[in-house]
Amino acid sequence: MSTLTVNRRSFLRVTALAGGGMMIAAYVDPVELFGQGRQGGAPPAPLEPNAFIRIAPDGKITIIGKNPEIGQGIKTTLPMIIADELDVDWKDVTVEQGDLDAKYGQQNAGGSTAVPGNWMPMRQIGAGARQMLIAAAAAQWSVPADELTTASGRVMHAASKRSAGYGELASKAAALPAPDPATLKLKDPKDFKIIGQRVKAVDVDAIVTGKPLFGIDVNLPGMLYAVYEKCPVFGGKVASANLDLVKTLPGVKHAFVIDGTDQLAGLVGGVAIVADSWWLAHSARQQLKVTWNEGKAATDSTVAFDKKAAELAPVLPAAPTRADGNVDEALKSATTVVEGAYAYPFLNHLQIEPMNATAKFADGKMEIWAGTQTPGGARNTVAQALSLQAADISLHMMRVGGAFGRRLYNEQIADAAAIAKQVPGVPVQLRWTREDDITHDQFRPAGYHYLKAGVDASGNVVGWRNHFITFSSNGTSPVGSGGMGAAQFPAGWLANYALYTSMIPFGMPTGAMRAPGSNAVAFVVQSFVDELAHAAKKDPLQFRLDLLNLPAPAAAPPAAAPAAPPAGGQAGAPGAGRGGGAPGREFDPARMRAVLELVRDKSGWGKTKLPTGTAMGVGFYFSHRGYFAEVAEVTVDAQKRVKVNKVWVAGDIGGPIINPLHAESQVQGSVIDGLSHLMSFEITVANGRTVQKSFEEHAPLRMRQAPAAIEAHFVPSTAAPTGLGEPALPPILPAVTNAIFAATGTRVRSLPLSKHGFRWA
Predict the structure, then answer these.
(1) DSSP string across 679-734
(2) Which helix (H) or strand (E) holds 323?
(3) Rounded to an integer, what distance in angstroms lies between the CA atom of residue 425 and that of residue 421?
(4) Which residues contact 84 (CB under 8 A, 6 or more apart)?
């Protein structure tokens, strides 16, 4: 988990606003996350208006949302934490989006890290400001500070019946030294007034009325528009292009080749066209003719990948990724042995807002307006690609119209900056088309799992082996988000367990997708658990509870170091504990049993007789510190039309849940996103090229196909709060496929469902 390190020397910086008032900035040590690096050297003097808290003389409160807002509600959530400890009413708070700035510490959206990483620092910022306002009032009234209380933006002294608004005290408070964090008095959770309330997102009104908030809405004086043609084969380079013709087309101002770098998640070479309007640039692109040096990835194909996986399947690597006990001997003693070959495809993120960025290069400095999950990483990518100093790059964070991990990567920002550098003094907005988005993603990796396990006469699992075949770009380690960690469930739960990892070389760009690693592996593991429950002739949900009740086998470290780094907070390092989770994030079986029991009770599992063709399925998963179990009621008709009637979700994400409204929305969005993965999301490759190019070919779930109800339930927890953007997604895939099996007897072992003749009803 990434956290903000707060210490006495770098906690609060307080200054007075012009004309009175108080401005509070918090300086925290930015840690490494998502390859962003540290976000710059010594923090600047806080003599600018965008600090964490501004208290104006009239009492108006402005709080900065420091992290990127990608639809997950963090622009509302983090200010809620500050406001509650500051002890002001939410209706009196204005929230502003912060730009990339070292004083905010790490600024990112990904890995469900925002709440666990900022929970205590945001509380301390609010409490520190409140303590200074109390100190100012105590000095003004010559009374002990411990006789004062606060509420609704006022400091009160009950004995003398005096009170003062924060605005009246702000300038005096600004002259006081910042408090030592160790002296802060944080609220008792029972006294929270904002945290735990159903608070509407701060941008909702602007969104529904069409106000410009997103990167694609940026409109600057004199702005030009650009398109960028890249090689259809990943990593290909421009050999020649008919630039002379393109430059003569209507509205075209510039057309030129950019060599780019070898970084597929950075500046890739291509041809830029800059014009008076995006449509004119796009129209000119239709007449662009480019000859490409396609490179070695031109031989990649899904057909070849599938063939190679089948060849590798029966040949186990010499060294296992993990080996506990003796799986081969255990399988010999099994009453029933189950084998299954599972597979899942490459996926595109398919976020709604196409990739875009606006950049202006002038006097050696680059100014950028863009939506990104990793603004620090964007700046570093631009600096490295264009040989600029990071200090000469500023980035204004725009709201993101969907990301799901796509905007962890910043190619579009590097593209826009490279184009703007060739057109100095003029802002240039680059927009990718939907076809650009689908064919040039950082794709969710595909994978193949060849499983074999056995149960004894009592229905207990005696041994489990997984030969996992993934992809590698360097021949030695799996691609990012393409590994399966040695501690991943069911590792640590079975005395006899083995994981082997083989790799297929390829040249595609890959990256994290919502619940990276978990979003695919959960389908495999929880489907195979269902197969074992069926073989054991046991209820699938009770089978899982029984499995989680098993005593821990004798500790056995992996036979070899994991072949992949931890994926998505699920996979762990050797010795990380049972069932997944890196050190400090160990899987707690009691918490998972609690969510399984909750979803069992809420769904009425096993208590309702369902009509023919309708059944329930269940899945659970531990991902990104969140414990989730889900039950889906599914109907499948004779034409293989699938209708997910209802989904019940139970989760444990610690406590308190800061904004229940957003928590429910995240759960519902995760389920709907997972259903898109399930039915029709699939990226295939031929001759090094992405075959799919449109929504029609890579179709998301439509509103009419969504479940009529998605219930979200949370187990009350005293554990520290965790993030929620990702962990509710993985269980929905096996919950639905297991329900399809229960309804039809057809076991789905590869995705998408559409490959097997299924379609939404």
Answers:
(1) HT--B-EETTEES--STTTSPPPPGGGS-SEEEEEE----SPP---SSTTSTTHHH
(2) strand 322-324
(3) 9
(4) 123, 126, 187, 192, 193, 194, 195
| Selection from 596, 694, 572, 704 nearest residue 649 by Cα | 596
Nearest to 316 by CA among 502, 448, 558, 447: 502
Counting beta carbons within 10 angstroms of the beta carbon of residue 521, is it exposed (0 to 12), middle (13 to 18) or buried (19 or more)?
buried
CA atoms within 13 A on the CB side of 432: 27
| Encoded amino acid at 700, one letter | P
Euclidean distance between CA atoms 381 and 369, whole angstroms = 15
Nearest to 421 by CA among 391, 395, 383: 383
What does residue 117 show for φ and ψ, rounded to 5 degrees? Answer: -80, -20
CA–CA separation, 28 and 19 (whole Å): 28
Where do runs of H (alpha helix) occur along 234-274?
A: 243-246
pLDDT along the chain (761 residues), means of 10: 45 80 70 44 38 92 96 96 98 96 89 92 94 97 97 97 96 91 92 97 94 96 98 97 98 98 95 98 98 96 98 96 96 97 98 97 98 97 97 98 96 98 98 97 98 97 98 92 92 94 96 96 98 98 93 50 33 34 62 97 96 98 96 98 98 96 97 97 97 94 97 95 95 98 98 97 96
Phi, psi of 733 (to 5 degrees): -65, -55
Q: What is the pTM of this model?
A: 0.92
